[in-house]
Amino acid sequence: MKAIALLGGPKEEWTNEIQTVFKEAKKNGDLVIGVDRGSYLLEELGIMPDLAIGDFDSLKKEELTKIESNVKDIRYSNPVKDWTDSELMIKSVFAGYNAKSLTIYGATGGRIDHFLVNLFMFLNPEIKKYAEKVTLIDQQNLIRFFLPGHHVITKEKDYPYFGVASLAAIQNLNISKAKYFLENYSGDYPRVFASNEFRQDRDEFELDFDSGFISVIFSKDIDKFEHAMN
Amino acid sequence: MKAIALLGGPKEEWTNEIQTVFKEAKKNGDLVIGVDRGSYLLEELGIMPDLAIGDFDSLKKEELTKIESNVKDIRYSNPVKDWTDSELMIKSVFAGYNAKSLTIYGATGGRIDHFLVNLFMFLNPEIKKYAEKVTLIDQQNLIRFFLPGHHVITKEKDYPYFGVASLAAIQNLNISKAKYFLENYSGDYPRVFASNEFRQDRDEFELDFDSGFISVIFSKDIDKFEHAMN
Hints:
The structure is a homodimer. By secondary structure, the first copy, chain A, is an alpha/beta fold. The first copy, chain A, is built from 7 helices and 14 strands. The longest helix of chain A is centred in the middle third of the chain and has 12 residues, at 85-96. The first copy, chain A, is globular and about 55 Å long. The interface between A and B is large, with 41 and 41 residues.
């Protein structure tokens, strides 16, 4: 089973086709998840989540009541807690529902500490084991995660640029067959190798590293004003 | 001397009063810096930067010509380089101009690899030594940086929330006198303690840690639609 989740990040970061994507997922029988305010935002889009997770403290009483009367599986988190709502969601999706992949919308923008929670949580060993099955998407970026090893990474349609972000200590990072290459980089702290591009004659680049954790951020240029008008 | 810089991030992330802030800085004799596209955006706002840094590859020829004929100090970076434009700017501001503080706008939003460069560069020892003098600002967030030690951190006006982001391995992190506290946390990889708040009766909280590097992200809720209309 595939899974798709909406977190509570600002709508301005959504892709234009988000409603279609979630409706399609629902039709295909994928697992649809709302996290905290994301549950309500899904209902606003006319999509009933199969699973809602959060402390729901950002919702008004009548918004929560609506979710409680319509959503089959609701998991309440504790606002003072060891697991964030996003982490609890990842665990539920993979350990509970045994999903084979997860696409997350609404993880970016707005309060930067919230975004960094959604990025750094993949370093937590309990979450990291699922990281390669997860994709984060917003209007301008698509983020994937990689564990140590050799990876042939295929271009994502419409995303000409990519940055390789080492999110922790890393050993022997190599980036090859891309516009800019990197050889045997090791470092003790996070660092980003930004603004790389696929070569004109290739739709793939290669990445390998011996230890550490990598996030590849695919991106495109957009005209935000035009986007807002769409 | 104080310094203020504009990077090339999307305008949608600017605070409403950005033009006033830069005009005021110019009037006060502060050092005004444009980084890459930020140089041109400053000119558009009617503000001539004192210093422009970048490879300027995102500018049209006539845009660059305008900057070249008007800006006193221009420093060209190499697109294939060890130092990013932002890092070169930090070094120029503190080692070159000997500024006592730096406020940066335009560092967030848009391509996430670009934002992470602007965040993670402060882990580079050559940049880290200036980190406590730097503030990043966008419409919803204000970011400051802290080196090991004991810190009494004062509330930033209009920012009720804060998150404490440990950006690297850390030892003995304590957060006290805030709504949520943390005791003796140590970890090998980045982690964020998000959604904390100042106590109702206090405009300060305390932070201390023995080794590592901390970013405190102050934030507020905004109605983005209202913001766009202002």
